[in-house]
Amino acid sequence: MYKLLIRPILFCFDPEQVHHFTFSLIRVLNKIPGFGLLFQSIYEVKNPKLEREVFGLKFKNPVGLAAGFDKDAKLYQELSNFGFGFIEIGTLTPKPQEGNPKKRLFRLKEDSAIINRMGFNNGGVLEAVERLKKNNGVLIGGNIGKNKNTPNEEATSDYEICFEALFPHVDYFVVNVSSPNTPNLRALQEKEPLTQLLQTLQNLNSQKPKQKPILLKIAPDLTNEQLLDIIDIVNETKIAGVIATNTTLSREGLQSENKSEMGGLSGKPLTNRSTEVIRFLSEKSNKSFPIIGVGGIHSADDAIEKLNAGASLVQLYTGFIYEGPKLIKEINERILSNN
What we know:
Strand content: 15-25%
Domain Dihydroorotate dehydrogenase catalytic: 50-336
Structural class: alpha/beta
Order of helices and strands: HHHEEEHEEEHEHEHEHEEHEHEHH
Radius of gyration: 19 Å
EC number: 1.3.5.2
GO cellular component, one term: cytoplasm
GO biological process, one term: 'de novo' UMP biosynthetic process
Binding site for FMN: 67-71, 91, 143, 176, 217, 245, 267, 296, 317-318
Number of helices: 12
Distance between the termini: 29 Å
CATH architecture: Alpha-Beta Barrel
């Protein structure tokens, strides 16, 4: 129904406007008594065999929603009714920011892809904290970044602010230094600044009565040498794991007219590269840390490939938009059938 009826209508309108419209619609529907349970009955797959224990957390299933969809933690409770095992919010920054000028979100229909140059638009970490205080049992990841106007040499303090504010309200953290839409952010992926940033957060973490997992989200555009550096950094700082991968700057093989828009590309064109990065990290590290696989998952087969390549969990974003919520159910059913 989604691909035949709902998606063609939604795809007639501006992507960012549609995003806000669907948020409002999902929120309204979930306020109608029984609708949340109806969504769960349609899309949720409950089975103990789907449960995963990864970096000390228990996930009811291994399929999550990637960061960027619910940046401000406005809809995590309602979105969990579609059968996600966990929801990642953000990227959040210390201060609210508008992000980049519109238009900044583009569908590439012929490529089943999206280009975005949103620029960490969010209401600030403290706004999100107020919403997270109302969480009723959803496993939440907190994706954190720096404000656009914060210079890289002061970036660590932005991540510290977000870490401290979110700590009581999320189950794990994701350090985002790989978005292509904040000027010079990817420079923080270089070995020395990245090690310093992660070590600072780990030091804060170690002072807590109970530590929380910290993960690093990396770009798919890193070279093999840089990926080896990532393995060294993870082992040195002892963070919990890696999310592979964020959006790409590559435009190789695209067919859509608007393929030259600036920003990060997600969707089917990223499928193979993100899986390659997962496999490389898993093999070269001797599976020494967990990996969350994300990038171009548009089918159950895509998800299984990433799990077979070494991912412990997977996340959806563009595939969720193109394929609809049934994709979550299909992946979980395929995992069960492979057991």
